[in-house]
User: Fold this.
Amino acid sequence: MKFVALSLIASASAFAPSAQLSRTSALNQHIGSGGMADTRNPEASVNEDPRKSISAAPSFEEYLKQRAAQDGAPAAAAPVAAAPAAATGTGGDVLSTLQSLQGPGEVWGADGIAVGKEESDLRGYDNFGKFFDLIQSTGVAAELQGAGPFTIFAPTDPAIASYETMRGPVDARVVKMHIVPGLISSADVSSADLTSLGGEKLTYRYAVRKNFVNDAIIGEKTFGPYSDYPIDVACSNGVIHGVGLCFAM
Assistant:
């Protein structure tokens, strides 16, 4: 009986498909958090073989702006991606310019549905009035008189409101964290000395193709066709960059 059983097993195995070892192409790839091969590469690269070159993909915000431009352009016209222009200052000093500077345009988003607005409709502009008032009330304005130059990383009104809700009142130390002696353009922020007016060293990092200072994006894009966070706003005694996060968070 044992002989018959072994014979049957041997016969069955002769007709079974042979096992083959398969080599997955994911072995040499980074495995993402979902367990699948992560093929994302946000950095552009140029190869001598053009077929292997990788073009820099636009961010989601940039894609929305390009799409909005296409919708408003004639069908036959090819869209041209233009570099973002620096915001135009009033020609005054950093304080007078900050007082009237227009911030980024914000859309209604999901909140607009309840009031009969489209999600992409303009809700308003996040300006810098709160930060301007804090510069005055904390006495920091006196230190911004004169030739400078000064670089102001100005938080928007919602950024100040978020800090006050989570951390409490904004004092002179927090205000000074957003002011750096010297003239620093957005293009030079990665290599500049980011020591604040109060003597604190700010932290720069580069991630997801964006420049961050103390976790705030420099040159942040908004959704829709409206204005982005202003950067490189030229003033008579410095420059202003708008940011959407308080540096002391």
